[in-house]
Specification:
Helix content is 73%, strand content 0%. With 197 residues, it is mainly α. The protein has one domain. The longest helix is centred in the middle third of the chain and has 36 residues. The protein starts with 5 loop residues before the first helix and ends with a helix.
Length: 197
């Protein structure tokens, strides 16, 4: 892991853990609500609304970790057969395309958040949640995605200036077959001689 990206990795990992816990809590809340409805005819109310907010927030915070782990889907039928320089050019083009996507997400989610703050919007449910609360967490996820993308772009261009194509590929390229095998196969090997004894 590159030192300049260490804080981004830490925040992304932490947000992934928080997101996972939040999704589990939502699943439990919805399950409890369903059980109460089916057994005693009582509904807690708001479980589906809270789950909707959590899903939107978690989705926005999932983009940065997918970017850092190079997990976004890309078609690699020709990519692996191209020379390293052309592969890096395609990686940078993909990063630029993602930057346009992030800019659109930030613009529109920011407009939604500003409107909710300006009009003091609340949800049209019994919970009456001020919408700026979930929307600000949703917007923050997209903002962190943009910061992560800019950090990766900055370091990738710095490595490119030093002609370190392999380092650029390791940051923003598609996983090689060897990397995918390394992720799937356990790092510790079973010693058959010791196991046989």
């Amino acid at each position: 892991m590159n030192t300049p990206l260490a804080p981004l990795h830490l925040i992304a990992r932490s947000s992934a853990w928080v997101a996972g816990i939040a999704l589990l809590a939502c699943a439990l809340l919805i399950s409890l609500d369903l059980i109460l409805r089916k057994t005693i005819g009582l509904s807690m109310g708001g479980a589906d609304e809270i789950a909707g907010y959590v899903l939107a927030i978690v989705s926005s915070w999932a983009f940065p970790i997918a970017l850092l782990r190079r997990s976004h889907v890309r078609v690699d039928i020709l990519y692996s057969r191209l020379p390293p320089g052309l592969r890096v050019s395609l990686d940078l083009l993909a990063l630029a395309g993602m930057a346009i996507f992030v800019a659109a997400l930030l613009w529109y989610s920011g407009q939604v958040l500003l409107d909710s703050i300006h009009y003091r919007s609340v949800s049209t449910t019994p919970l009456q949640v001020p919408l700026w609360i979930p929307q600000s967490l949703w917007f923050a996820g997209y903002l962190f995605f943009a910061v992560t993308l800019l950090g990766l772009a900055w370091i990738s261009l710095a490595q490119l200036r030093r002609q370190r194509l392999a380092a650029v590929s390791a940051l923003i390229g598609i996983h090689s077959v060897e990397e995918e095998i390394h992720e799937e196969v356990p790092t510790t090997r079973f010693d058959t001689d010791k196991g046989a004894r």
